[in-house]
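Deliverable D4.2, example record:
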Amino acid sequence: MRKPIVAAGVVCAMAGSVLPARAERPGPTPVYRHVDRGTGAEVRLYRPTADRAAVEVVATDLLIVKSLAPGRTETRIVGSGEDLTITLDRAGVAVTDSRLPLTADGSTTEGLRQARGRIQSSTAVRRAVRLLGQMDVRDTSPISHTLLVTRALLGSALGEPDADDALRSWSKRAGPGVRLVRAAAQQQPDGPTDCWTSYVMEAITAWIEYEDCVDSEEWWDIPGMLGCLLIYDIRAIGAFSWWVSCVGFRG
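Output generated by the structure prediction step:
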């Protein structure tokens, strides 16, 4: 029997105003920022708070925000006159779009297809996928992994059959030398290296479960891949938030 992809509703609704070109976000100063050599986009990590952890990619007329709040993850794309957010929580998946209100029932595969249709019609999402695909994320850092997860999620929503290829490569690069023993995760990390090791253990364990999920779907079933990636996404960003706290970025 095929597993249900999404357990609750998908809601697409009106959103707020769209940010201008390469806007500087008001608020705290990033604790980490890096300009990508290939694209010129800037990656920013803000000090996590009790209710939010976020990493951003800022480019010309394009903002990508990946964030974790209690009980939910959000992927927000702003640009090309659009403001679109994909939210995953216990209630299901929500796609908030500034262009057109739409409500769909995400308890069915058809509901997820309708949500994908809204994402597929977004010029900003296509630009985000192209930008993330051009960025230099060849290292095995948690920040690079978070960007790859975001690109895979968006690419799958656009219907790319190979959207998870870069994630698969990341897992192969990060895996050697890391023991996949869950009991080790219960040990108190002694430093940044142990924080990274524990992070990679969780990320690769989640990847194995993702592959099992995909294997249970037909290989051509793009909505099935997207459903599996949604589950992987919330685990990956949760692990990222833990890593940020482990290495001492949290205030």
